[in-house]
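Table S2 (continued). Query chain:
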Amino acid sequence: MGKQKAWSTSVFVWLFGLASSFAACGGGSSTNPGGNGGTGGTSTLPAGTGICADTCTKDCNQDQDCDMTRGEMCCNLAPAGKTCLLAAECPRQCSSDSQCDTANGQACGRLSLAVSQQYCADASSGIRTCSSDSNCSSGYVCCGIYNQPICLPPSQCPKACSDSSACNTTTGEICCTSVRSIESNLGVDGLCLNPSYASCPKTCSTSADCNSSSGLLCCNGLCASTCEKTCTQSSDCTGQLCCKSALTKIDSLSTHVFTVGPTCKGTPYSCSTCASYGSCTTCPGCSYPSGGTCSGTAYSCSSCASYNGCSNCPGCTSTGTSGCSGTAYSCESCASYEGSCSYCPGCTTSTTGSCTSGTYTYTCSDLSSYSSYCTSAGCSYNSSTSSCTGTPVPCSSLTSSTACGNNLLCTWSGSCTGTPTPCASITSSTTCYDNPGCTYSSSGTCTGTPTPCSSLSSTTCDQNPGCYYSSSTCTGTPTACNQLSTTTCSSNPGCYLGM
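Corresponding output:
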């Protein structure tokens, strides 16, 4: 947060507001998260020391010390001190919301862990302390890395550590034990950070302690690429003033937040839409309504095994000799089960037909998690931001079933034709499972009595193709993307990894 600027509007927002990222105060920035330097440390300046700046506010004890003809007043920036600011820029201390402009979204609260006073500010700018996640807004967690737990997005709450064994080293994380040098209100000695996205601050006494080959300097006790120029008098500056006002002390009071690197972003699809991709039970935050039942006629063990493998069919076991047996479904029947003719051995999609828009209305951004689907739809994929942009090609312009089938946004209306591969001629278990009606028994034939549909739960109901959950609607509140881990992110349609 640079101080070489005109002290201007909305002062209290950046005075004590949460820093946008750790990178902005010790390594990199919001626009260059992988950088190796920032604006230096934020420790308190030595007594009598100031910062070279273009303009400087005047410190005061009372309003009469300020230029009241310009509308200035003596503003209390406790504990930094008092300085002259325009009345509209002066933060208002408060003890309750009733003293704030609640009609315009203001609330009374703390704006920094280092400041006990409460101020009127936009409700989203304040720090909310907590004891559990339930105290926080949707999409936030109660982050316990500070000396007082506060509500933060999961992407700004790294894991505490004492050594790198506690971190995910496979993704490049290290245990950074110098984080207290930029945030004294941490309650832990180290945080798991990924240097590719947030550098671990390096303390120093002189620039010789820093990586001189990278041009790093020792700035106020921390290695950084640039330094604010300190001064004791204006003659120490070049065309600037030596500013020692209360504003120069503010930056050391802000509460710094840390980034954990790429996180899950996006807007999750509704539960009913998510369920159309697979099963309601695989959609985070979604479930079948209570009171629903599993109904239908359970497939025989051999038929169920051809879809899921015998071990995934409730009530069935594998015994006997190896081989592929059964009667393959017709191409049309196979396509109706598999969802695509291309998954049916021996079958092909009729070349006569047309390519039309799919069941749902998609945009390029819906394909951000899938680079291959993005490009096949005629959109542009940016691997560095994991984003898919542009305008998809019209489905009607695709004249082949292959091109249409490769486009997730389109559906080929031609029929599935051909002669299905006989079960007996299949030797591959994978191909056998892909051919409905065939049963592979590499570990034996699948025998037993399938569990009746009515005895299956909403979770196990989907395991038997002959059963279905009686409620056709998948309900619930889908889990917010930023609450999903990087490994489960792509399992929720609408979510994608990004910075």
